[in-house]
Amino acid sequence: MFAARDDRYQGLCCAKALYGIITRFLVDDYSHSEHRGTGMFNATPWEKLEEVVSTYRGIKAPSQKQRCLHLGVKTQASTTSEGVLAFNLPFSSRDLQLYADGTSKRVTIHMDPDDLRKAYVTAEGHDEVIEVDLRMTALQDLTLEKAIEVMEAACRRDPKAQELHDRHLHEARKRFAEESGFFPDSRDPSNYQTIDQLRWRADRLAQVEMRPTGITGPTAPPGRVTDRSSGNHVFKVKKSGAPDQGIRDKKPSKSGHASFKPIKESKL
Questions:
Q1: How many angstroms separate the most distant Cα atoms in the chain?
Q2: If you count Cβ atoms within 10 Å of the first and of the last residue's Cβ in the chain, which end, N or C, has fewer?
Q3: pTM value?
Q4: Contact between residue 250 and residue 259 where contact means Cβ atoms under 8 Å apart
């Protein structure tokens, strides 16, 4: 195991050295060499850059909203009471809920795969661009690829789980960081995948329900539901989709035990 890790570490060191040589060539050599391309007339790329900056001046960098709308990844989805899902990631905002108005509407989500904190929603016939926020805090500082890896790891390590929520994802991220030993070189092109590959991986997680942990109440232990000799009360558990009105137990009798009506004998 240690030998394999040493070989991988040496390989990464060689890759870093190669990237360093290429970067130094492009910065120190190539940009200061004479070029004979169209319109260059033996000028260097650095000289042409200074000429362009002095003639046309610079331009402001585009905002995150502009980057997402014009250069970001687009995906189609329908609104729900929870918001929208893009690559199986939940996004929502007050403006989106006001636009949906409790109905399912087809929208387009524009997102930056390197910054998942915010995304932008457009819809046909709606002129305004709606800003939405990522609802999973555990994934806000990750790229799209890393977020999908964390969700896949959470499903692999706990196959019986039917939900993904913040606690699961925090634990999966911790395991992922501890088991990796070290993080791959972000400059290595092999570390990047196409959007179609990420979309396919995200679609595989579509059957996993993503929501916070539900609210449940205490119940009597198995086999003790009808036990009248103990002081265990039988509690009503909140039903799925029911309004949160708290958990109430059956009214206890004067003796402190749960009261039950007499059990009718069967006529069979």
A1: 106
A2: C
A3: 0.50
A4: yes
How many folded domains does the chain comprise?
2
Higher pLDDT, 244 or 77: 77
| Residue corresponding to tokens 């390989």 | 11
Q: What is the pLDDT of residues 37-61, one digit of tens each?
A: 888 888 999 998 888 888 888 778 8
Q: Which amino acid is at 54?
A: S
Per DSSP, 62 falls in state P
CA-to-CA distance for 265 and 268, rounded, in angstroms?
Answer: 9
Per-residue pLDDT tens for 56-78?
887 788 898 999 999 999 999 99
Any idea which residue has 């199986």 for tokens?
A: 88
Closest CA to 209 of 168, 246, 250, 255: 168
Clarify whether residues 120 and 193 are in a common domain. yes
Expressed as residue numbers, the domain containing 52 is 2-56
| 266 vs 183: CA distance, rounded Å | 68
